[in-house]
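Quick one, T. Sequence first:
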Amino acid sequence: MKRFYGEHKGKVIETDSQFKHVMAITLNPRTNYKDGVARCITSRSGDLALKGNIDRSELHKITGSSLEHYKIGERLNIKNEKEIIDKLVGNDGDFIGLEDPDIWIEEKTNLIHLYFTIPIRTVDKDLNRIGKTRVHLGHTVGPDLDSLEMTKPVLMDNGKFRAKEVSIAPINKRGFRFNLIESKDRRVETSYSIVQVAIAKDMGGSWEYGDIAFHPAENNLPWIGGHASPGPLFSKNFIDVGAGKLLGVINGCKADKIVGGETTYGTFSIGLFIYDYENGKINWVSPEPFIEDSEAGKGGGRAITFASQFVETGQGEGILYTHVDDSFVRAYTLKAQDIKSLLPSP
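Structure tokens:
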């Protein structure tokens, strides 16, 4: 099978005595990608392949002298974090840590906006059990990573939809953005992760839930038949797929299975999609994944390859960063010329 990417050897971030597992890297364009943020796992409660595993985590700064190697630094210091989180947690919540960071630079102000997942489990104290998990899309803003201040979430879990794993879209001709998020939908006894539009008229204010852009239950694509999550969008400088459209990577997981009465997740891999950002529509998703890490699942557990960041390094070339088995970060070289052969005819 032909590979349409070059897998780099080794790990992008070396773990240390404090953290065994690191994932979800995002890099800072303002410093020419010499620093950024990563999600560090402080504790893991169970088997990644089974529903119900809990990863507790922290966001830490990372620094590097090259695009292939970064070191874990101090925990990200965010002003007003405790006050905002305490209000969200209330009297019945269990906050398990910030997750899934994404950096976006506002051109007009040159401010850094950092988005992330805020997961809060509800606790039924009378029955002594954990209930549903509320998932909000959090936000901070500041002149640099050392001066961030948390605001209220840009999107709150409303009981029907939740928000995480944001992909920032360009401004459309109407003056706002049809961003993409991972949300959820439940049909009968099956829960799906879906890709949903998030309407953003103010990148630091309140967003709105838009239409469902991709639902695994409505597309006959086995590799992404259970869960879908938007990944990085490529610029037109890297690869141009037409006016008002961008190519990007999408993370997909096979349908869940019930084994021995427990829900077991499938393989997570990476495919491609074409996004009409003017109208908030996904026009095409690749029929097969195009990246599966060589080490994914080799530890005997669930195989996961999940993309979080793309950095252009030259004309038609760049580096895609993923985390493998929710444990370490890998880099891959992508070339636009190779990827073009995977795309549908114009």
